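Before relying on records like the one below, remember that each one covers exactly one chain. Contacts with other chains, cofactors or solvent are not represented anywhere in the record.
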Amino acid sequence: MKYYRIFFITLIFLSYMNCETSHKKEVKNGTSEVSEITQETLKLMTYNIRLDVASDGENAWPNRKDILTSQVLFLAPDIMGVQEARPNQMEDLRKALKDYKSVGVGRDGENEGEFSAIFYNSKKISVENEATFWLSETPNEISKGWDAAYPRICTYGLFTATNTGQKFWVFNTHLDHVGAEAQKEGMKLILRKIDKINVKGFPVVIMGDFNVEPNSDVIAETQSKMVDAKAIAKVKFGNNGTFNGFKYAEIANRRIDYILISKSSNVEVEKYAVLTSAVDLKFPSDHFPVLVELKIK
């Protein structure tokens, strides 16, 4: 009888501990309310996949698309922002990444030109609304802004983690590689868009190929509202540089790809990595993917 009693008490204790870790009590106006503690861990990645251009020779897209898509499947990001993805590359990614859906349009029109698309694992994430705007003085129409060499865009979405219902914004962009004014004004435009639409104060992530290094005016422009994920990550791994140019000599020289987190959000950056993987001494892209693991409370 004594053993049954101990077993019964143990069950009660374990049940209590499970309840305590899953719920918290809040006292409001003299009444006790029970609300569930929710916490979501997500992996987000930005990846400039290098456009499909025949002049890349042995590094052209047909010779590396299988390596790149296998890499993405292995890393299994919940959210992935891509840059330089042409329509045929988008189609290849959609076919290979079967559990993923994507949002975004090409910079030259609905399915024309390079995408700064966002892929998301549809088994874990849903999207509430999404849009693409141009980094120019006329952001609602196909256009090239300021001193940019090419039209540049930003695609964004309000995403929901299906397990917890937590919402967060992701903005993915590819700033111009030539125009310093276009880089700076483009980032200002993105920050203004965030201020306009994030009225409920959800966590915000800005990711992409910014084509600038950390000491630039563009990064300085973000520092009042955003923080570099690398700076606050609990665990860091990999190179400093994110651009390789398909050459080993380029490794670690230039850091131009970023993931930024809104300062006011209740988000912890558990891990940050620049993944310098290669297969048979060949890189999947001329950029390395940047991967973070976030804990959203």
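The chain has two domains: 2-35, 38-296.
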